[in-house]
């Protein structure tokens, strides 16, 4: 059994940020456990055509790792290069165990350690940081006859680049953020493209631009980079006013989105299918200037809910209105288990308490990060840490303040474990869901992946990101049990 002070599960930006902060704190006795055979997470895994970030690149980056981006909204290849730059710049390559799938973890109360069972043996550590991320478990819905289909199928998260989709008959099931990027990328190259949409999404234009040589040089200067980040940050932060505090602001943005739809889609029937019946922001807003034109192409057909999938057979899809569609490829763009399944492996805390039982009603955590009865366990991008208006990396860096403060406090006091008090977690969770009632995510008239099966909004933080940063800035000893 290999023993470390800290184990980090996952090697995406959350795991990298945790590792770098440990190194800055003088802690080198740690390992990242990565189930795949490569280091890097989301932007090394999601390589589907058209993949790109939907937050401006200078903000969607680590504050301590500026980069000379080539465009405002970086595409997947550049995001992968940035990921590799971070890994190499901070010397993380030797700190990862690849092809190490975590199967279960257990708290050993006698030794105050976590025991981690993996596909490559057992590890143990005083501290455990789960950084698997909420968008790591792809979901593929079940349909009658699905296993009979003789064509090709895969999820956008596992795009098969060996398969040539050109001049093929293709269906994309789903119409969310990934589909909105795939559709414009492949539509010009396929024979027919059938898009199955359960619910339309609000779409706003993408204000992308390429940076010139001088602008890229400026991005390499930390003061200029920091200034641009903060300008973008405060511009995006104002969106919370609409999401939570101002119905007139929502209506204004919604009118802008309707105007954009009208300008880009001339066909009134297609426009009807693409018009949501819920408030903008209730579901994830798509940022794209190419989606609507792609859906209007002569070789693209949009199937709304009333023309949805009834069953699948050997040669394609049978729709609920009786149409048979012959297909060569079905692409599942159906998202992830991002709420109830935020941690996919079994977790056993004190007294063999199972995390999945604690979360049976709905996932919850103090600061979205720690739980009563699970000492020295920290969840990066845990329940209610999602942010619909700005960069997730800002939240991840905020969480690191709290996590490193917990670890540092134990070291200073010569103690071995820390866990949040049940009453502190309960007070925090009640505050989160009380504040959530005022948001468009709760009252906007839709059901999205932001919700758990219980109906609670689990994915989002109901306020400004700087409010969350303030909450995580320093450990509150009174909220914790230290021993």
From TrEMBL:
<dbReference type="InterPro" id="IPR036188">
    <property type="entry name" value="FAD/NAD-bd_sf"/>
</dbReference>
<protein>
    <submittedName>
        <fullName>NAD(P)/FAD-dependent oxidoreductase</fullName>
    </submittedName>
</protein>
<dbReference type="Pfam" id="PF13738">
    <property type="entry name" value="Pyr_redox_3"/>
</dbReference>
<dbReference type="InterPro" id="IPR051209">
    <property type="entry name" value="FAD-bind_Monooxygenase_sf"/>
</dbReference>
């Amino acid at each position: 059994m290999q023993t470390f002070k800290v184990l980090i599960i996952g090697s995406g930006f959350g795991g990298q940020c945790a590792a770098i902060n440990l190194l800055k704190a003088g802690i080198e006795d740690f390992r990242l456990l990565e189930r795949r055979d490569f280091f890097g997470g989301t932007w090394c895994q999601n390589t589907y055509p058209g993949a790109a970030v939907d937050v401006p690149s200078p903000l969607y980056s680590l504050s301590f790792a500026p980069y000379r981006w080539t465009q405002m909204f970086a595409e997947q290849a550049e995001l992968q290069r940035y990921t590799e730059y971070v890994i190499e710049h901070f010397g993380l390559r030797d700190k990862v165990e690849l092809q190490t799938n975590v199967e279960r973890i257990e708290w050993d109360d006698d030794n105050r350690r976590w025991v981690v069972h993996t596909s490559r043996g057992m590890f143990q550590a005083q501290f455990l940081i789960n950084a698997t991320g909420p968008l790591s478990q792809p979901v593929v819905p079940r349909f009658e006859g699905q296993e009979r289909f003789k064509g090709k199928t895969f999820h956008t998260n596992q795009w098969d680049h060996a398969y040539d989709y050109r001049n093929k008959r293709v269906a994309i099931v789903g119409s969310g953020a990934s589909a909105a990027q795939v559709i414009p990328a492949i539509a010009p190259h396929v024979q027919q493209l059938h898009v199955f949409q359960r619910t339309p999404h609000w779409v706003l234009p993408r204000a992308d631009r390429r940076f010139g040589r001088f602008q890229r040089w400026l991005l390499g200067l930390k003061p200029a980079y920091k200034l641009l980040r903060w300008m973008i940050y405060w511009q995006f932060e104002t969106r919370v006013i609409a999401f939570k505090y101002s119905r007139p602001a929502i209506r204004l943005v919604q009118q802008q989105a309707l105007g954009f739809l009208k300008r880009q889609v001339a066909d009134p029937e297609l426009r009807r299918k693409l018009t949501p019946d819920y408030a903008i922001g209730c579901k994830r807003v798509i940022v794209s200037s190419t989606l609507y034109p792609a859906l209007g192409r002569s070789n693209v057909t949009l199937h709304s809910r009333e023309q949805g999938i009834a069953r699948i057979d050997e040669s394609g899809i049978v729709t609920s209105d009786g149409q048979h569609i012959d297909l060569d490829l079905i692409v599942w763009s159906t998202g992830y288990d991002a709420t109830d399944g935020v941690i996919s492996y079994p977790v056993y805390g004190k007294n063999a308490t199972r995390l999945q039982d604690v979360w049976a009603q709905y996932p919850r955590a103090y600061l979205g990060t720690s739980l009563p009865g699970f000492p020295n366990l920290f969840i990066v991008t845990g329940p209610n840490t999602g942010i619909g208006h700005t960069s997730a990396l800002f939240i991840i860096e905020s969480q690191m303040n709290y996590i490193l403060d917990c670890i540092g406090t134990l070291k200073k006091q010569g103690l071995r474990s820390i866990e949040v008090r049940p009453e502190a977690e309960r007070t925090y969770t009640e505050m989160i869901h009380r504040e959530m009632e005022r948001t468009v995510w709760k009252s906007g008239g839709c059901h999205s992946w932001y919700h758990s099966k219980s109906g609670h909004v689990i994915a989002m933080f109901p306020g400004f990101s700087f409010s969350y940063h303030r909450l995580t800035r320093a450990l509150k000893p009174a909220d914790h049990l230290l021993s």
